[in-house]
Amino acid sequence: MTFEPKILGFLCNWCSYAGADLAGVSRIQYPPNIRVIRVMCSGRVDPSFIADAFIHGIDGVLVLGCHLGDCHYLTGNYEAEIKMNALNKLLQLINFSERMRLDWVSASEGNRFAQIVSEFTNQIQKLGTSPINNKEKNSEIRDNLEAVKNVLEDSRLRGLIARQRELVNDGNVYGEQISAEKFENLIDEVIQNEFIRQKIIVKIKSKGKSVPTIANEIGVKASEVLEHIVVLRSRGLVDVDEINEEIPTFISIMGG
Amino acid sequence: MEKVGSVLVIGGGIAGIQASMDLGDSGYKVYLVESTMSIGGVMSQLDKTFPTNDCAICILAPKLVAAGRHENINLLINTTLEKISGKAGNFKVDLKQKSLYLDQETCTGCGVCAQECPVEAIDFFNEGLSKRAAISVKFPQAVPLVFSINQEVCIGCGFCKGVCKAKAIDYTLKDKKTSLNVGAVVLAPGFDEYDPEPTHHYGFGKFPNVVTSIQFERILSASGPHSGLILRPSDGIIPKKIAFLQCVGSRDKKHGAEYCSSVCCMYTAKEAVIAKEHMPLVQPTIFSMDIRACGKDFDKYIDRAQNEYGVRYIRSRISSVKEISESNDLILNYETENGEIVEEVFNLVILAVGAMPNRSTKELAKTLGVELNEEFFCKTKPFSPVETSKEGIYVCGMFSEPKDIPETVVEASAAAGAVNILLSEARNTLIEEKKLPKEIDIIGEPPRIGVFVCHCGINIAGVVDVADVVDYANKLPDVAYAEKNLYTCSADTQTNIKEKIKEYNLNRVIVASCTPRTHEPLFQATIREAGLNKYLFDLANIRDQCSWVHMHEPKEATEKAKDLVRMAIAKARNLIPLQEQHVSVIHKGLVIGGGVAGMTAALNLANQGFEVYLVEKGDKLGGFSKNVYQTIEKYDVQGLITDLIKKVDDHKLINVFLNAKINSIGGYVCNFTTRLTQGKNKEFKEFQHGIIIVATGAHEYQPKEGEFLYGNDDRVILQSELENLLFTNSEKINGAETIVMIQCVGSRNEEHPYCSRMCCSEAIKNAIKAKEVNPNLNIVIFYRDIRTYGFKEKFYNLAREKGIVFIRFDQENPPDIVKKGSRLSVNVVTPKLGKISIDTDFIALSAGIVSNGEENEELAKMLKVPVNSEKFFLEAHVKLRPSDFATDGIFLCGTARGSATISESIAQALSASSRATTILSKDILVTEGIISKVNPALCIGCNRCAEVCNYGAVGVRYEEGKMISEVNPLLCKGCGDCAAECPAEAITMSHFGTSQIEPMIAEAAHVEFGNGRPRIVAFLCNWCSYAGADLAGVSRYQYPPNVRTIRVMCSGGLPKRLILQAFLEGADGVFVGGCHIGDCHYIAGNQDTLRRTRDIESKLESIGINPERFLRKWVSASEGKLFSETMIEFVDKVKKLGPIESEYKNKSIKVSK
Question: B690 and B586 in contact (C-beta within 8 Å)?
């Protein structure tokens, strides 16, 4: 039996959704695996929706909007591009980036819509089902996805992403323009750090663990884990659970 | 050119702060320039301080606040000196303040910006062990409490401006340049720690588990990156075996510097002890060449470290450190003293890094035209230790030589003392007195209370329903007006409060906002400007101790905020106006002791125009220094003494009394009366004076009959006798072949368990001199540790270069001297060489310094000041008040305090004079408002108040058969200990007395909780535990909202009755928090707390209350985490015990009471 992937599509009202309608009117056929959620603009698609979709076992997510420059809300799709770029960085860390695609489909591109859906369905079919659906080893994947979702909900990162276009194109509060490269590096750094921190939190949600144990579980150097624990403690998210002889264990606490 | 009555102080560490406070208190306008964002310096980074293990921030923070609010001190942060011109008495200085990108006056320090900032930067305050936002405050207790943007990492996203409700942030602010005229400059730029990173010294920077001592200080700190847990950087595990390596960057010409950094031996011992205290499983080992514990009580500390805490000392210098890559453990190879090679594995290695010149000082010296020495420290001379090469520019602290905190504080005051001479004629010319309206008489008026509830942006309003609190306050009896403010501390709200006082005829004001520790003085000043006595104010702490610690329980937090406001109102009803008394000052000083210290102090005061009585028990001035010819730096001591004596004799304002004996000293600060007899004819004298300086000195230890054959053989002489020979009769040693010197004679033994500090340098000085006189002479020095601290180390090296032999012996195996024909033979079993024997012609005994024993005790009794177990005088605080006694108006300098070199004695003398000048320079001294008062009608004359008072401020005396019981308002510090002790309740503590606290208890204990009980009433002392609770807030350590806090000045001011009252009113649990023993702000008030609360603990059972419901705990100002944990545990415990009614019937406890 061939594997039938579950594909979720976020389509913007003005272009892509209309494009999909046109595919219908024109009777252009495409695989039935896609389920569509209409949004007013691709910029509305919160990256954490996509993480959520993956947590719920979706095999692939398509985000489709107007072509750059054609946005009904002028720049919404530029924002979508930035958001999905950040999401992509995170998904790369957990080997999920191929399960997500952002593309542009205009109201007149019924054909293109069908083509993208077919291609993407095909691609996911080849990749196989999302590892989260594999009952035997899904807990690690779930932890990863939860961490990704939490990172995406962090107000600081969201703020940064929200200001990216302004800072790179128009300049910052001091009137200086920040190079796209510098900004990418900054986002990379924040994403890296926050992802590890969220993974730590996920790992010590219900049970206190020592730094070397955490390091071992998430594959990060123990010294780095300690640095992140210091940050998490200062944010009130993690505290010492107990101290057994020379080994303190840390546990995540409600807070922040 | 006219002299200017203002001073520029560069550097806001403890030295700069002390100098500024002294100068500000002596009538000068002070500009305190600090290059970072807060004053406090390195001391603010320290966890504890030696030798008392005082919590550094507990003792420093009140000083920071006082300096920040001082009316004569202008703080200029983020500022550096650009240019200077003019000359002593009238300089023009150009300053540059780097932009903070926010308005310092508008920023409330609430910290919301830092929480929203998306950029992380390295936290240098935590020595890189944690991260902070790009907009941040230097440390939680920073003064001024202002945030600033780190432009190096800021990306200019604009978030902070978006969230700042105070509208303080302005990205367009440019650097600001200012020009000032000042009469003098005091340099206190401090030092840098030696940086082992560039050379990877001992693997630092390569091996994660090699850290510096200052990093370890942050690791130990309860407010540091690990909240006081000792975790090693590689894996977050507690290191069992810790190695401390001494002299990293010190005493090492290849790495760092040749000199000794003076502080590392002691701070290492302290770090080892504290580490052990934090985590008993830690096994500290200290590798050192010598243990230089040469300050007051330092040797005792080392003994305790070894014997009580099990700290292991190994005499060895480690050459290199290797790492085991799998475990990140470290391998040390070392050679023990007896030549054994050992390889040992440690889990953590700490490098005791030395003190280097501050990186800014070369530039600073160039700008100022001040000379540096070859080590790039400020050049000074032994007899003028705080003068730079340029007139009118003075130096103090680490900038002139590495030294510890007390010596730094001494020098800071000494620098102020030097300024006093230069600028005394311009005193009081630039300070402004604030014109205040006449106080409104409110006596007899019913209370009309105004309540101002602060949003603190979202800090309070984000959790507490502020509008609800205001509505609630409005309905309470006696509240005439209540309102809410976005920021109650902002300038426009101050105007508003003043208007509302007039409009509603308010006679009490309550602000519900942050902590009184930082903000009470501001609001007090505001209501005073509106004509209300400043003591008609109270603050309800609904931020640090409410919204910040119950962030996830908005409903409970709002209820608690209402309770705190209701408690404050209950107190406010009984607040009464307090009057500070004004006492006129007699502008004369008494200096006791005519040695170098006494003469220097007398001259300093006289040169400012104050008349001085200089009292000397002997028939000549000069003191012990008469026996000294040169300093180790070859400065002429005899010349100094002759010069001082001449100046004293010639000075019109100095009255010298020789052969004098003091019969009595009466009175108190501002107005003492001394009676003495003087001269050969025992002529009687009586005179009045405003202050006293004790400079009675000490003397050389006289070996016992036969000790090292001293007194039995002429060839065994004292070091001072050898010096006399060398300088006046040197041909006597020309024929000699060998001289042996024996160190620590009468020092560091059971009888004198302390180091005499200068004998090592004296021996080396004389050895070098002897070599100059007779180059063929063999000189052997038997020592226990060579303690040539600071730059004196150079002379130790010089001596060794000259072929002088140093051999160490252990205390258990002292040298044995036998006569051997015409010579003497010294036999010793040494740890290194085993048994050796040396024949010699002379033996010089380095006799220690001993106190004047009974004489000191007698004087101490007269002055009502303490002496320590060695009968040296005991200063008010060994760290921060080295020149003061606890009793106001009496000061201390020279060897009467403990052993000191001539140079140090001079600094101490100037320091004592400066401290004295803070009183003598005033016409009127204003006393504290919050003091105790005695009702003589109730007094039963038991005098227990005098026993608990540490300031000699209260007691019973009899005059002509009449009992007089009173509090001296000039001496009372307002701790309330006497009131708590008085069995007749004849003593009332003002402002925090029973009439204020009792209604608060009733309100605190009558609380009902929606989620059930317990109700906890917590009494917290202002200086430590209350500050610790505030820090829990700043750090957002959450704890259950069941606790209602009552602030008292000292836990020792809490009578047993009030603690029991809390139970009686219905509290399910009562907590008393104070400073750690030894840390008390009022010297030892917490000892009385301990005694009283132990008594309570033992009696609770018998009156039907489970003693588990009572908890006493010491919480320091840095232990926010501990406070929150303690509350969590205590609430939990009391919850399990159930409501208090379950245990007793109200009736029976009332009977018990």
Answer: yes
Instruction: Quote the domain boundaries for residue A40.
Output: 7-133
Give bridge partners of residue A237 from the DSSP assignment.
Answer: none
B875: distance to nearest CA of chain A, Å? 39
Check which CATH number belongs to the domain holding B786 and give it.
3.50.50.60
State how beta strands B6-10 and B29-33 pair.
parallel
Please report where in the chains the tokens 């004001």 appear, as a residue. B509
Q: Which has the closest alpha carbon to B156: B79, B101, B211, B231?
A: B101
Q: Looking at this predicted complex, what is its ipTM?
A: 0.92
How many residues does the structure list for chain B?
1153
Residue whose entry in the numeric block shows the structure tokens 């002390």: B18
The pLDDT of residue A254 is 67
Q: Is B831 exposed, middle or buried (0-12, 13-18, 19+ CB in 10 A)?
A: middle
pLDDT attached to residue A1: 67
- Considering only CA atoms, which of A138, A146, A137, A131 is closest in space to residue A201? A146
Length of chain A: 256
Q: What is the pLDDT of residues B928-940, one digit of tens each?
A: 889 999 999 999 9
User: What average pLDDT does this structure show over B497-508?
Assistant: 95
> Cα separation of B275 and B283, whole Å?
9
Structural domain including B170 reads 99-174
Question: Which residues in chain A are closer than 8 Å to B157, comparing Cβ atoms?
Answer: 159-160, 163, 167, 172-173
Specify burial of residue B285 (Cβ count, 10 A radius: 0-12, 13-18, 19+).
Answer: middle
Longest Cα pair distance anywhere in chain B, in angstroms? 101
B157 and A246 in contact by Cβ < 8 A? no
Task: Compare all CA atoms of chain B with the CA of A238 and give the residue at the minimum distance.
Answer: B1037
- A213 contacts in chain B (CB < 8 Å): none
Domain annotation covers residue A161: yes
- The answer to whether position B443 is within a domain reads no
Under an 8 A CB cutoff, do B226 and A230 touch?
A: yes
Distance CA(B804)–CA(B825), nearest Å, equals: 18
Condensed to tens digits (0 to 9), the pLDDT of residues A116-126 reads 999 999 999 99
Question: What is the rounded CA–CA span in Å between residue B567 and residue B561?
Answer: 10
d(C-alpha B450, C-alpha B463), whole Å: 23
DSSP 8-state code for residue B747: S
Domain count, chain B: 8
Is the separation of the CB atoms in B741 and B779 below 8 Å?
yes
Closest by Cα among A171, A190, A76, A84 to B157:
A171
